[in-house]
Amino acid sequence: MKPAEILTMHRARVQELYTETGSWAKVYEMLSKSLPEIAGIKIATFKQYAPILIELNTRLNTDTELNRVKQELEQVKQELNRLQELNTELNKEHELNTPVKQETVKQKLNIAGWNIIQYKNYFRAFKKVAGKLHGVYLGKSLDGAEQKIMNKEQQLAG
């Protein structure tokens, strides 16, 4: 096995011992006693690779933390989706249990062939004569509407 591979396998232990001792020589000495594969690596090689391994381990730990946070975020997203689905179901149930409001259906009024329309509490009558639209103001009520329409028809007739 190559020195880099050996040290990569034991990078966490190298970092731990260096944090305790602060000396690469002491770390090498301690590891070579407990791990025979480290004893086969020269101390100069160990001193070159060890700082890189500590940086690598730190970054991997950071990446591990990042992955943990990503997993937690994914769990929160899944919970949010579940709650949104539940909310949708509850809204559907509420709509089914709520009586539907009956909107008033406006009936079309027609007097003597004139269409009657109510707009802002006022009534007007409209009719197309000879391709032209004519209108008659009827007022707030339909009382006397037939008479007003007949007068307009007389005007149009001539």
**Chain-averaged pLDDT:** 83
Share of residues in strands: 15-25%
Contiguous helical run count: 6
Class by alpha and beta content: alpha+beta
Taking the alpha carbons of the first and last residues, their distance comes to 115 Å
The number of domains: 2
Q: Runs with pLDDT <50, length 5+?
A: none
DSSP summary, beta strand count: 4
Strand line-up across the major sheet: 1-2-3-4
For the largest beta-sheet, the strand count, sense and barrel status come to:
4 strands, antiparallel
Helix proportion range = 55-70%
> Which term fits the overall shape?
rod-shaped
Rg, alpha carbons: 45 Å
Secondary-structure element series: HHHHHEEEEH
Q: Short description, anyone?
A:
The chain has helices at residues 3-9, 11-21, 24-34, 36-39, 43-97, 145-157; strands at 109-111, 114-119, 122-129, 132-139. With 158 residues, the chain is α+β, with helices and mostly antiparallel strands.
Identify the notable features of this structure and list them briefly.
single chain; 158 residues; alpha+beta; four-stranded antiparallel sheet; 16% strand
Would you write up a description of this structure?
64% of the residues lie in helices and 16% in strands. It has two domains: 3-97; 109-157, no CATH class. Strands 1-2-3-4 form a four-stranded antiparallel β-sheet, with helices on one face. With 158 residues, the chain is α+β, with helices and mostly antiparallel strands.
